[in-house]
Structures are given as structure tokens and as C-alpha cells.
Amino acid sequence: MTEKEENCVELRQSVPGLQMSFIQGTDLFGYVGIEAVLDQMRSKTMKAGFEFNIMVVGQSGLGKSTLVNTLFKSKVSRKSCTPNYEEKISKTVKLHTVSHVIEEKGVKMKLTVIDTPGFGDQINNENCWEPILKYVNEQYEKYLREELHVNRKRRIPDSRVHCCIYFLPATGHRLRPIDVEFLKRLGKIVSIVPIIAKADTLTIEERQEFKERIRQDLAANGIHVYPQKEYDEDPEERILNDRIRESIPFAVVGTDKEHQVNGNKVLGRKTKWGIIEVENVAHCEFANLRDLLIRSHLQDLKDVTHNIHYETYRVRRLNESNMDFSELGLSTWLLENGTADKWESESHL
Amino acid sequence: MATFLNEVWRTRSYSNQDICPKINASSKQRPRRVRPLSLAGHVGFDSLPDQLVNKSICQGFCFNILCIGETGIGKSTLMDTLFNTNFENFESSHFEPQVKLRAQTYDLQESNVRLRLTVVNTVGFGDQMNKQESYQPVVDYIDRQFESYLQEELKIKRSLHNYHDSRVHACLYFISPSGHSLKSLDLVTMKKLDSKVNIIPVIAKADTISKSELHKFKIKIMSELVSNGVQIYQFPLDDETVAKVNTTMNGHLPFAVVGSTEEVSVGNKMVKARQYPWGVVQVENENHCDFVKLREMLICVNMEDLREQTHTRHYELYRRCKLEEMGFKDTGPESKPVSLQQTYEAKRQEFLVELQKREDEMRQMFVQRVKEKESELKEAERELQSRFEQLKRLHADEKAALEEKKRLLDEDQSSFSKRRAAAQLLQAQSLTANGKKDKDRKK
């Protein structure tokens, strides 16, 4: 700071204990009204609306589209009918994006579902994650470019992938090589929620053992899935997230058909040996997944994507292209102020 | 120049077919894709605003108010009254040579909302004889806050969500209650600040104006502001829930406020008021002054909007100007989109060239100075040498003179001793001659 500035501004930092002033309660005499800012924030965000981008990855036939439809209780994605022989032999993974605007109780949300048909379907599945990796990075790139514009939009359209649901087939054994490879690579750049698809083929004991083995495999390979342990901010959150971490991957069953059970209409799959109720926690863990994704952690997913994954990408990108703006900022200061000070010191020969 | 950014855009080779409509150049497909959908049941994302609000509660809020006004107009008292607490403030003198700003940060809490409030007061505003530069420290302070936010945003490793936002969200401009019109200092200052901060003008010490005068005063002030093109903060009208109350409030601007932290008993309650021999001015009585309206507007209804305006309008304007000043543009000379990297590289080259030139210049200067000094020193040396010679000569002369004198003295001495010897001899001779004579006589 130059001397002139030091004379102009005297800053006193808020030292805890010295200048902290607490107003407890809202008795009429001591009323200030700071609380109202919460309502203001609420109404502003409701007016602006939300955006959420979710990606589903898994082999065909694992019930990706059905699950998304069940999650959002509407026909969000169209189920692909069994592809014929020619279509199955497509060379690469094609990403397919669909956007919808859904509204509930005044809250508007633009939901984008990114589907990955063809993942893991070919005979040679090496590098099948490449298109997905590229897509995710491309969304980050788009956002970064918008952010670096001189004339920025008021709200930069957010197309970054907030959550990736990875479908594990219910084999009952362990993680397969393709799973390990995909989770390893994408776990670093996006929040992954792995689930066991079509879990009605496993009994409860088999399910527990399978989950335990998967968790061991994940730990052995150093894969961090959402919610990541490193990003827990306070003990409360840690306790909550620990409970979630103990039960991932969720074993889910998806359906959009309704049946009558005990006089109630429930979503379920009807088989000859019984009706599997999707929303019954004793039958499958769909309700847990829905609560995690939508009711409690949706904002957190977006925050982790924005504050952590996007920032990591940005750091890497700016370092790659050697763009250090602080260097430029300082340099313009030097050029503007001239090196007058240096002249002075030179004359003291 | 094939930069990395352009590479990515060109080699979109992960599929022969259409990847997703958003990246596709033709945006005709996009409106068709986003269609509204009806839900068959309760999904649960209506809790999203609550999730967001809960996160904000954990993080806490930040609010920065700048109070500009003459010394003794009641800025600190009003802040105390507004936030119902005693910020430590001492009275400033009227003899400040320059306008200074004093910023103090406090942590307040009301039920579960934590607010980090920063109050910035001007010290010595309007006290100087020459008030031409009075607005400059204020403008500099505001710009400095924008600058530090911009620096943080442009850092490579940044943490924006943890960053303590010190940008000024609201500026309360205190108008002294003369009853006539705005002073020229007020107009000049407000004109300089209206594009940098949300200005809310208030009439201070409103208990010195009567109701009818106040009405005329308010009208005069507003018309002066409009005719001079000063854009003060207008309460937002786009949200239906607050539009009605905001419209009425917009009509009451500028608010005439009275501040007081002393309590006086009125009826059977203790209220904040100022006690005069002729009556009691109650701060929270809407008939007496507009304090309650100010508190409503500033805190209860529009705090979030003030913060948003600061971020999206004033800060973006500053950022745009600063980046353009530094030479960044979105479009190149042929209005083709220029990537930031190209601009950056160009700037960097320019800067390096400039640096090199400066370095060469400095080196030349250095060499020249060295030469100069050398010649100076040589000159001094020569002078010294000549002086030395001169002194030596003087010394030699004096020595010669002294030698001469010594020789003369020696000569004198020797002649003197010769004379003495001769005299002694003569004396001795005369003595012996006398002795002989005596001897002769005796015989």
C-alpha cells in the first residue's frame, strides 16, 4: 500500500471477544430485522429458478431411464426399446441430452438429463469413458470461457454435470475392471453416486455382502465417491455424511407402474412372488437415494461441483496456458506508476 | 495462433453424430428441447430454497455500509440506532486536513442469522476550506474494495466462497437539514458515486425541520437530483411480494431520520427518543420521523437486493472497465471473438518488450551516471592535486624563509660571539697590561 492509502483508511478487524456484539432474541425493543434477509434470499432464488444437470452412466438394460423417470415422477427420458443388432455395434458412446422444466410449489427447476447409451456395450470397451470425460470437461470449459468474458451475462448458464449416477449391475461379486477404470477417472472431476441397479435380484444378505465388497474395492482403489470425506465442513455434516457413506452404494429398483397394496396405490414391480414396493425402505433403497439426491443434498451437489471440481479444472487450465492474471495486474501498475522510485535510488551513487 | 482452447473446439471427435444440442452451433434445436413437464407426484425439490438458505446460514452474511456526511451530522448515532448496539465511536475533530475513511467490522447475530457488518464512516468530510478533492478518498476506497475482489476472482487458486466480501453494498448520504436545497458538495459527491455504489440519501437531524418545510425540502432535493442526473438507488419493483411497499417507499425518499440511543419513558414504555423542553421526539414513531421506514427498506426488505445490485451491476461495470483498460476485449479488430489467451499472450509480449526497453534505458542511464561521476571524481582529484602542490610550494617557501632567518641568526650569533671573544681578549690583555704596570711600579 502506498503511504497515502495508509493515511486514508484505518481498518480495525473484528477481534472475537473484543468487538463482538450479540443481539439475542427478537424482543420488540431490540428488533433490527436481520432475519428478514433469509426470506429475501428465498424469494429471490425462487424467482430465478434452479438448474440441475444429472448424468446416468451404465450398460444398456440396467434401467437408467426408468430410474430417472421414477426419481422425478415424470417421463423425463424416453426408454430405448431393445436396440436391433446394427445399432448395438455403434463404434463410440453417444451422449444424449434432454432438458425439462419442472415446477413444484412455486420452485422452478430446469432439469437436464445426460444419457450415455452405448457405454460398456461394445465387445472392446477400452476407452469408453473418453467421450464422457470430454463432455464433462467441455462443460467446465464453456463455463470458464463465459466467466472470463469482459462483458459477462448476469447469470452464466450452468451446464456442468452436477451429479453422475453410475449403475453397477447386481452381480453379487465385486467391482468389474470397467467399473474401476471409470470410477477412478471420473471420480476426480465429478461427483459420482454409484448405485446397484435392478437390486431385486439380490436377497438382503447378498446385498449387504455385495455392498461391503464394493466399499472395500472402492477404498482399495482410492476412489472417492460422493459425499467425499474431505469436503465435510463441520461435525454435524460429517455425522450425516458418515451415515450415508455407510450405506452406499444404494440398492435401487425403479419403475413407473403403480399397483394396489393394502388399499394404497404404490409404485412397484409386480411379480408372481410378490410386489416390490419401490418406496418402501424395507424392500429397496430408492427412497434413500431420492432423499439424498433431491431433498437434502441437491444444493450441496451443486456447491461441490462449483466450488471444488470446477475450481480444480480452472486451476489446471489456467496453469496449462500459463495465464496468471495477478502477474498482469501488477505489471500494469508498474507501467502506470513508472519506475520513478527506482530513479531516486539510482542517484545515490 | 492455435491455442489450446481452439484445439478443443475443433477436435470434437467423440462421435460422428450429434453430441448434444447445446454444443451444436445451430441453436434452433434448443428451444424445442426445453419443454415443461408435469409431475405425477411429490418429488421433493421444493426444499431447494431451504437447502440454499440453510447453507447461507452456516456461512453467515456480509453487509457493508458506507456513511458519508459532514462531521457531527449524526452518522455514528444513526448506525447505533439502526443496529441497536453501541459501536465504539469517538467524536472526530473538525480540523482534519484531509478526508479519511474509518472502517469497522462487527459480528452481529439475531436468532440464528449471523451478520458480519462493516460500517465505513468518513472523517472530516466537508470540513476543509477547499473541498474540491473531498470525494476522491471515498471513490478510491470503493474502487479498492472492487479491486481486491477482482484480484481474488482472477487468481489461479482462489476461494471465492470463503472470501470476506468488503465491497460497499449501500451508501447512506447524509444531507444536512438546511431546509433549502442540496449543497454543491453533495451534488458533486453523489454524481461521482452513483455509478459505483447504491446511494440512499437521508436527511439527518430531521427534528430541526417542521413537517411542511420537510415536504418542500424533499421535493426540492429529489428534483435537484433528477435534474443533475444523479442515479440514486431505487427500491426494486419486479418482485410482486415487495413491489407495493417499495413503490410507496420510493415516494418517501429521501428519508428524514433522527437517531438516538438514549431511552426516554413515554407513557409506560421506554422508547428511544430525544428529549427536548418542548417535547419528546420518538425515533420509532412514524409520525415523528422516517427512521422505521429506513430500517424496513435497508434491512428487512432490500438487503439482499442491495447486495445483488452491487455484485451484478456496479462490480461488473468496474470489472469491465478495468479489463478493457488492461487491454482485454471480447472481440478482435475484425469483430471475431478473441480468446482470452490470445489477448493475454499479446499483452504479455508487449509487457516483456516494454520491460526490456525500460531495462535498457535504465542500464544506459546507469552507465551515463557512472561516467559522470567518474569525471567528477577525476576533476576533484586534479583539484586536490593542484592544491597539494600549492601547499607544498608554500611550505617550501616558508621553509626557505625560515632557513634564511636562521642563517641570519646564526651569523648574528657567530659575529656576536666573535665580538665577545674579542672583547674578552681585549679585557684580558688590558688586565695583564695593568698588572704589568703595577708590577713595574712596585719595583
Automatic annotation (TrEMBL), chain A:
Listed GO cellular component terms? Answer: cytoskeleton
Q: Which SUPFAM superfamilies match?
A: P-loop containing nucleoside triphosphate hydrolases (SSF52540)
The name of this protein is Septin-type G domain-containing protein
Question: The organism sits in which domain of life?
Answer: Eukaryota
A molecular-function term among this protein's GO annotations: GTP binding
Q: Which segments constitute the Septin-type G domain? A: 48-320
The keyword Cell division belongs to this UniProt entry's keyword annotation: yes
Q: Where in the cell is it found?
A: Cytoplasm, Cytoskeleton
Xref: InterPro entries: G_SEPTIN_dom (IPR030379), P-loop_NTPase (IPR027417), Septin (IPR016491), Small_GTP-bd (IPR005225)
**PANTHER family tied to this protein:** SEPTIN
What's this protein's family per the entry?
Answer: Belongs to the TRAFAC class TrmE-Era-EngA-EngB-Septin-like GTPase superfamily. Septin GTPase family.
Q: Keyword GTP-binding on this protein?
A: yes
UniProtKB/TrEMBL annotation, chain B:
Which SUPFAM superfamilies is this protein grouped with?
P-loop containing nucleoside triphosphate hydrolases
Record family assignment:
Belongs to the TRAFAC class TrmE-Era-EngA-EngB-Septin-like GTPase superfamily. Septin GTPase family.
Cross-referenced Pfam families: Septin
Can the keyword Heme be found in this entry's annotation? Answer: no
Q: Would you tell me the protein name for this molecule?
A: Septin
Q: Has keyword Iron?
A: no
Q: Which GO terms describe its molecular function?
A: GTP binding
Q: Whose protein is this, by species?
A: Dicentrarchus labrax (European seabass)
Task: Write the record's keywords in alphabetical order, separated by commas.
Answer: Coiled coil, GTP-binding, Nucleotide-binding
Recorded hits in Gene3D superfamilies, A to Z, give:
P-loop containing nucleotide triphosphate hydrolases
Start and end of every Septin-type G domain? 59-325
Entry-linked InterPro entries: G_SEPTIN_dom (IPR030379), P-loop_NTPase (IPR027417), Septin (IPR016491)
Q: Where is coiled-coil annotated?
A: 363-411
